[in-house]
Amino acid sequence: MSSFKVALLGACGGIGQPLALLLKLNQKISELALYDIKQARTPCAGVAEDLSHINTPAEVKGTP
């Protein structure tokens, strides 16, 4: 089974956070990178930290 590295742009907004959760649950994704150009209430590093507690193979990285 092949795995994918996925970059999610706009990951810290109201649409991006639930989408990041759904991507984290996808078994075909091995690495998930979260980015956002706007200063959000929750920074991408915080979203990545929250998602990292979910027990799936995907490794999550968020920009500060």
Q: How are the SSEs ordered, and which strands pair?
A:
Layout: E1 4-9, H1 16-25, E2 29-35, H2 44-52, E3 59-62
Parallel strand pairs: 1-2, 2-3
Describe what this molecule looks like in 3D:
It is globular and about 35 Å long. A 3-stranded parallel sheet has the order 1-2-3, with helices on one face. The N and C termini lie far apart (32 Å). Helix 2 (44-52) links the parallel strand 2 (29-35) and strand 3 (59-62). The chain has one domain: NAD(P)-binding Rossmann-like Domain (Rossmann fold, 3-Layer(aba) Sandwich). The model has no long low-confidence stretch (mean pLDDT 92). By secondary structure, it is of the alpha/beta class. It has helices spanning 16-25, 44-52, and strands spanning 4-9, 29-35, 59-62. The chain is built from 2 helices and 3 strands; from the N terminus they run βαβαβ.
